[in-house]
Amino acid sequence: MTLSKYQRGQILIIYLSTLFVGGSTIALGLLSTGKPLDDLVKNVKVRVSDNERQQQVLDLLEQWKDEGKEKQKVYREQREQLLDLVKDHAATRVQFDNQLEQLLAMDTAAAKRLLDIQYGLRENLTETEWNKILAK
């Protein structure tokens, strides 16, 4: 099956959207609440009075921030590789598929890690703290 020029353009838009949107979410460090990590850290410092639990929550958030920075670097590299493919007239569908597969695997790993952190937060916050810190 041969794709028309229009269809190839749509596929390229899908690839680029996945790359830029997926990477930017991690880069911003937004949890499921849509709040930046810095705001969550401030809220934890204000709302969690137990020093031990507060430190455990802050450690989890710091881990997410550090991991996000590292993932941001990888996403930038992936974006450059994908843009190189876009510029290469001889690039094949298989090359694009391989790039997309890598991006999807990274997004899946990031989503799983987000859940790990979310459950770690839940274990260390009371229901009241949770609602005040993570409420939308």
Show the helix and strand layout.
Elements: H1 5-28, H2 37-47, H3 51-87, H4 93-124, H5 127-134
Number of helical regions: 5
Beta-strand proportion:
under 5%
Question: Major sheet: size, sense and barrel closure?
Answer: none
Taking the alpha carbons of the first and last residues, their distance comes to 47 Å
Radius of gyration of CA atoms, rounded to a whole number: 19 Å
Overall number of strands: 0
The SS-based structural class is: mainly alpha
Averaged pLDDT, please? 79
- The total domain count is 1
Q: What share of residues is helical?
A: over 70%
Q: Give the SSE order as H and E letters.
A: HHHHH
State the shape: elongated
Stretches with pLDDT under 50, minimum 5 residues = 23-29
Word description of this protein:
- With about 140 residues, this protein is mostly helical.
- The chain has one domain (about 5-135).
- Helices cover about 80% and strands about 0% of the residues.
- The chain contains five helices and no strands.
- Helix 1 (about 5-30) packs parallel to helix 4 (about 95-125) and helix 3 runs antiparallel to helix 4 (about 95-125).
- The longest helix is centred in the middle third of the chain and has 37 residues, at about 50-85.
- It starts with a helix and ends with a helix.
- Mean pLDDT is about 80; it is low at about 25-30.
What's the short version?
The chain is mainly α. The chain is built from five helices and no strands.
Search tags:
5 helices, mainly alpha, 136 residues
